[in-house]
Amino acid sequence: MSSTTNAKGETLLAVDGVSLAFGGVKAITDVSFDIRKGEIRAIIGPNGAGKTSMLNVINGFYHPQQGRITYKGQTRSRMRPYQAASQGIARTFQNVALFRGMSTLDNIMVGRTLRMHRGLFWQMLRFGPAMREEIDHRRHVEDIIDFLQIEAIRKTPVGKLPYGLQKRVELGRALAMEPELLLLDEPMAGMNMEEKEDMCRYILDLNRHFGTTIALIEHDIGVVMDLSDRVVVLEYGHKIADGTPEEVKADPKVIDAYLGVGH
Amino acid sequence: MFYRETGQFKQSYAADSAVFPILQDRYGLAIIMAIAFVLIPMFGSEFLLASVMIPFLILSLGAIGLNILVGYTGLLSLGTAGFMGVGAYATYKLSTLFPQVNILVWILCSGFFSAGIGVLFGLPSLRIKGFYLAVATLAAQFFLQWCFVRVAWLYNYNPSGAIEVSGRTLFGIAITGPMATPVNRYYVVLGVVVVMTLIASNIVHGRIGRTWMAVRDMDIAAQLMGIRLLPAKLLAFAVSSFYCGVAGALMVFLWLSAAEPSAFDIKLSFLLLFMVIIGGLGSLIGSFMGAALIHILPIVIRALPESLGLPVAAATVEHLTYLIVGGLIIFFLIVEPHGLARLWQITKQKLRVWPFPY
Amino acid sequence: MLYNIFIDPFVQMVQMPDLLVQTLWEGLVSGVLYALIALGFVLIFKASGVFNFAQGIMVVFSALTLVGFYAKFSSWGFSGHAAAFLALLLAAGVMLVLAMLVERVVLRPLVNQPDIILFMATFGITYVLIGFGEIVFGGDPKQMIANELFLPSGSVDIEMLGGLVSLQKIDIAAAVIASLMIVGLALFFQKTRIGRALRAVADSHKAALSVGISLNQIWVIVWFAAGLVALVTGIMWGARSDVSFALEIVALKALPVLVLGGFTSVPGAIVGGLIIGIGEKLGEFYWGPLLGGGIESWLAYVIALVFLLYRPQGLFGDKIIERI
Amino acid sequence: MSEPATADTVSRQPDPAPPILSVNNIEVIYDHVILVLKGVSLTVPKGGIVAILGANGAGKTTTLKAISNLLHSERGEVTKGSIEFDGERIDKLSPNELVRRGCIQVMEGRHCFGHLSIEENLLTGAFTRRDGRAAVRDDLEMIYNYFPRLKQRRNSMAGYTSGGEQQMCAIGRAMMSRPKMILLDEPSMGLAPQVVDEIFEIVKDLNTKQGVSFLVAEQNTNMALKYATYGYILETGRIVMDGVADALRDNEDVKEFYLGIGGEGRKSFRDVKSYKRRKRWLS
Amino acid sequence: ANAEDSIYVPLFTYRTGAFAGSGAPIADGMHDYLTMLNERDGGIGGVKLVIEECETGYDTKKGLECYEAVKPKKPVMVNPWSTGITLPLIQKAGVDKIPVLSMAYGLSASAKGDVFPWIFNPPATYWDGFTQILNYIADQEGGGVDKLKGKKIGYIYLDASFGREPLPLIEQLSKELGFEAKLYPVAAADMQNQSSQWLSVRRDRPDYMILFGWGALNSTAVKEAVKTNFPMEKFISVWWPGEDDVRGAGDGAKGFKTLNWHAAGTDFALIQDIQKYVVDAGKSQVSDKAKVGQVLYNRGVYNSMLIAEAIRTAQEVTGNKVVTGEDVRRGLENLNIDEARLKEIGLEGFTQPLKLSCNDHNGHQSNFVQSWNGTAFEKVTDYIAPMSDKVIPLLDEDAKSYAEKNAPWPERTEACDAS
Ligand SMILES: Nc1ncnc2c1ncn2[C@@H]1O[C@H](COP(=O)(O)OP(=O)(O)OP(=O)(O)O)[C@@H](O)[C@H]1O
Ligand SMILES: Nc1ncnc2c1ncn2[C@@H]1O[C@H](COP(=O)(O)OP(=O)(O)OP(=O)(O)O)[C@@H](O)[C@H]1O
Ligand SMILES: CC(C)C[C@H](N)C(=O)O
Ligand SMILES: [Mg+2]
Ligand SMILES: [Mg+2]
Known about the structure:
The complex is a heteropentamer. By secondary structure, chain B is mainly alpha-helical.
């Protein structure tokens, strides 16, 4: 399946006229766009444009004052983060938000929480059903660890890992949720070229092989242009452009507000 | 050199996720169990059993309970002694209302009462965090203690306002009351503590434990992983209070054998919290180590001058004990802020690479 | 029953207005005294994020030092006001030494550790101070040298509202001194460069270090300030009862005040103190008997809890930042 | 603060200039057991801009922290070697003394004071200064000139500002101490491309106009080598290559692994092959 | 030193913690008397006493630890000096065969020797004390308990087992005698912060106030009473305040009253001996020699006199020189300190004679009231008897209910020495 056909998929998520303000600060003003099933959708814009806030709105951490969000055909203006998670929205964070006291393995296992069901009683015994469930999910997690090539740090507490690896573990944790929509907030910040390449590969593989829809915030324009099917550009909370990478790249407003002339 | 995991390969995920994956650790555990179950009761003096080991085990159990809340879920609580009191008074009421049922059953059941109360006082934890929550749980501490004083029904209208423990048996052997020998009481306490520690270990190493730790480390991210904070926190409160409740019941029934409300005062809450911190937040072994440091160490220091034949006045010994224990706490913190359990871990790690420094 | 809860207390208030005034006054005074203790906590919390468990024992320790010095002087035949103030000065000096020791021995090696670890360390300090204090001063209670320090005694009795309201002079003095201290400290920390640095340190040790704020200096300053506050608290509480190790427990009274006012706010300490002080006296006085009395012991916490549910960071506390 | 005029000429020829910073063969251990730096040496000439490059976890941050003495607070310590700044040993100094002497670090991951406003954050940077309020005010204005976005948000609590804004704030805060030397840890991380350009321009500006020396740890190799005069490449705790920036840029290995330019020019990220693994210089 | 030829007497004391102010003088008094016996007489009956203090800090858990620590050394009796510590020991005493001497504290019902063969609480129970105060009040009002009718009596107390001990009695008596009781509990944590209680006192305007306090509670209560302008003559305490507790309140405290059963001061041959052999010889821990002879110091002396006399009696009864706990229990039951014996001891006029028996482990002695005159306590009344007709039946009942609640409570098997 090629990504161009993906882009023609049905709409998975639509953001409609969303506005969000914190006291006097308007983080997002009347922004609408959509994400289609199976595409890689980039969100770019200068610092403070409201990109992260947009993701926070999508997965229910912020509640917009205005506007609606339609996800998988359901329209809503308000939902709780765990609901978003249970409907298949996973994400990574701009400032790494791993569970610092836990090992890589445990972090990723947390991603399986929603899919594990054995209650307190079996957990207390551990042997029997709880153990079997644990091992099933462990297997799945090991696949992810394999995929991301982080076998060596399986048992290391994540707090001590270098930044780049932390980002990778975070991706792993999101993958463990087997999401339909994956929100990535600057997954490649602070990485060198090689690591970026690795990351790109993971993203593409995900998209291609598992059909995961991806919303991507990234400041590396090279990455954005190469990976994404469509790009939405925000500035000061407003949407200033939306289209294919080529269109956006040529848009003078975007050059002016974001890219600068050098790119 | 001797502490190496070399050559021990894990064939299955089950083996790999065992609590003690390294062989030497399992030997160590077996030795400790042997000492606890055989050596100490055989050769220990009554003092060792009644004043060192029983309190130590009970406090450890309380510390485990608190550790589940503070160490694993990151909810600071200063109401521990109150919850312990609930367990004790519940056991007292139940065992006087239904004397025919075995006391041990009631001791374990009492945990449910404190779990209930714990959940109730855990409700604010959704909004209140950190030290603020600690102080909010003080409301529980003081309110509960006040109830123990004021609600005469709780202590069967005894004029002294204290609860007294009568002699009860298990399989015909006295386990509470004046006839229960320290050895008997020790075995009961040890049994309860070992089983409950095992259960706690199972819980914290499984899904629920991970949920708690996720809430502790980054509650926002945990939410976005699909964890619902309130149920997770309340479950932690419930389990934690259950443990504390049982510890409280054990404390009155197998250690003190009569207790005034002041047995559950704020000092105990603080002490347990300190045991948890110095032992190691989020470590079950740490709970034992912390209890040892804070309960056993002073006893040892107090006993020192006498066993060395130094004529030091009792009060001076007490002063010095304070001084030394305080100093040692600071010392240990500086050596390893993350507690004795971590210190132990690092020592093991050094052992592993020994004789090379790193 | 309902009558007893909702009507009777108010009827009492109206019928005996003098008692109401007296109750309010007592509440005010305790509030001020609680605020004083809370202030000690706030100072240290603000500057290091440390919840200082040792504040209570510092109150006892400083007061004992003061009384101890004075006793030494008078055993040399040197007593009176001059001796008392010299003792005061020396006691302040001891608090400075204590601040420096704490910084050097405890805080410096523990820089950048989680709050709870530092909290634990202050517990160690508490034990050391208890042990040391009892060795040096012995456990028996001492009398506060209130007269020698020109603190007034006796009472001002005011006839009003058909009754007698009696205000203790020492309480008036306590209220005045406490207010002065609080205003002074608030200004000092708000208007000076140190104030900003202080808040920065509380926010993040690591970052503060990186911009060149001297943690050591800041810590000595705040611990010294907290020591002085402890000394004043010790004098005031000591004058009301005795100076003994029993005084340590009054520190617990500051906790609800802290929560209510916010751990980081100097004005919060005083407002919180007043709300708690007055609330708890009114509650105990008018509603306590319904429940068998002694509700004071938890009422303060419940009041604090109720406020917290509205504002999780206390009335004046810094907003808790939740972002990702 | 001194000799701003001559700096420009010096910075172009690093070798003969007297070093402002020299790190000699240091070893760093965390937690008494984890050896992270295994003998790292580097020098920064007065008025130079030097870059440290290297993969994740190579030890760049650790190196910078060793210099600024912030390691101590993370239970790390320098067990071997020495560090000199301005001709004096600094390994035993407190970070605050070091800032006073003119060496300040901008930490990776921003570390703004969340509860302080942007402006207060900037002012804390001036903590060690003794040259009066007016001078501080002037510098504040200068920083607002460099980062107009900060001026807009001057009264917001730093904790609520966006990642990029915080990064600017952290850099501005360091500049407020009027340092002779700034240790920059990943300044470009999370910044919009335009701002990255700006920041490096500012670096250059400070360097030429005020003679501030820089040691920059950076992942954005392209940028770093464009502005730096000299570079070191760090791999798992060792320096594996160093050289004048231009030379490094022409090195085939650097090109391939750090700049993403293979033999035949820039490739698309889409075409990256998964079997490609970096060769390691050493280890 | 636990040799065959010595008697081990542990003393539970508290010279640290919140109650050290009251605990230290008592500890000194106890310790000094026994030391003096060793120094002067070489022990009791020629057997040396091994005296050892164990610090409890008035903390129940530590007290139990002390108990376990001394138990292997075969103590002849323990003195817990805390009602809280006494309660658990009541159960253990019989099993471990160690008599507990809880002198005028502890469980009032333990006066019943037939139910509590191992517990002794002479010379009076808290219930006796309370009724003595009532009798005193009745006297002040003109004599006869019917004078109590309609009176309002406030009771301010430490809200722990000690202060709560009289509550059932108060409930009963207030009904029977027709006075109105107002309760002012003070939590241990609020000992030094009693303004609410005293505000209520202002509102309720009780005719008399009765105080059951300990440690800093006493001194704070007196100060607050002065502040509240409560008439001091009408403020009467059970026997626990000492001079130091009152002095701090200044002149306002003049007229404050407490119960007592022994004299203060040093004008007794025995106390002179203590000064000579112990204090002046530097073998005492008193911080200040002036404290010798104060109320609480002498209370400690009295306690040790009971210990010593019990041992001596045990030696007489059993014929053993080195006595055991069992022996001393019998010694206590046969204790008979009459005037002649008091004179021998060197405490003539110090206190009333005391005689215990198999059934009566208390004596239910009379007490006098002493009043503070600004520098010392002065005896102001004769010995006042308790309302035994009311107290004894209640005690019986309470002892019975204790045994029921703690079923199976062992029947007394210890034989009574006919005397
Ligand atoms: N506090 C610490 N305790 C233990 N190990 C640590 C600590 N900090 C860093 N490390 C380890 O030291 C190594 C070097 O880390 P460092 O942060 O210096 O790398 P870096 O080159 O800055 O990487 P990045 O590009 O990801 O920032 C890593 O392997 C890391 O795991
Ligand atoms: N919880 C909040 N409270 C107050 N202001 C906020 C909050 N969250 C975001 N903002 C403000 O909203 C604006 C948008 O922030 P956001 O984090 O979405 O930017 P961004 O586009 O992700 O920027 P960057 O690329 O720098 O990460 C910023 O100005 C920020 O200060
Ligand atoms: C033992 C006494 C001296 C102390 C207190 N009155 C109590 O009974 O606990
Ligand atoms: Mg962002
Ligand atoms: Mg780094």
